[in-house]
Amino acid sequence: MEISVMNFKGGQGKTSIALNLAYSFDYGIVANETYTVLKNHLDDNHLLITTDAIPSGLDDVIYDFGGGITKHMTDALKRSHVVIIPFIVEQANVEVTIEAITSVLALNKNIILVPNKIKATDKDYQILLDTLKEFGFDHLPICPIRSSMALQNIFTEHKTIEQMQAEGGLNGFNYRKVSEDFNNLIKLINTMKGDK
Question: Over the stretch 143-172, which tens digit does the pLDDT of each residue have?
């Protein structure tokens, strides 16, 4: 299975989502940005960094794509069983994300929108849903991820959020909800992969 995680805008949580999914599925990652933190966390057998053509025939891979869609990304986005578009629910981020959704839909209809780092007090979430409806994107599945230190700790612990939560103690309590969120995302990915 090939899964793309992309947005034009940086700082949306693409890499933490890609890494958690790679650990969860035991997949490798292909990144298109030379300066990626992933090179500090994955070995050469699990990470390919390339700004050139992406090899075809890859399987069991997560693409961590940043920036605009280049010719090298196009085929990988078309091939992907699912394209995940994470974004922070703030006006400027949503505006760029609308552009990303429009661009990806021209290549692949299997998109999951992931409002990322959602807080319980986030009043903009309903506005986001209304905006997606206004642009005709309300038919796309939405899988929000709640705000949690677990997203950062993936990099320090080298474990999935579910594994950290399963250890119990404070992590068991604090990571319960975000672990549920990622499990919902994984279930949705597994459901949608059959559509390709």
Answer: 999 999 999 999 999 999 999 999 988 888
> How does pLDDT run across 93-110, given as a tens digit for each residue?
888 899 999 999 999 999
Q: What is the pLDDT of residues 53-70, one digit of tens each?
A: 888 888 899 999 988 888
pLDDT at 66: 86
- Strands (E) in 101-179, as ranges, are 111-116
On the CB side of 147, CA atoms within 13 Å amount to 8
Of 107, 110, 106, 181, which is closest to residue 151 (Cα–Cα)? Answer: 181
Q: What is the DSSP string of 43-96?
A: -TTTEEE-SSPPPTT--SEEEEEESS--HHHHHHHHH-SEEEEEEESSHHHHHH
| CA 58/CA 28 separation, integer angstroms | 10
Q: Which residues contact 66 (CB under 8 A, 6 or more apart)?
A: 6, 7, 8, 10, 14, 32, 33
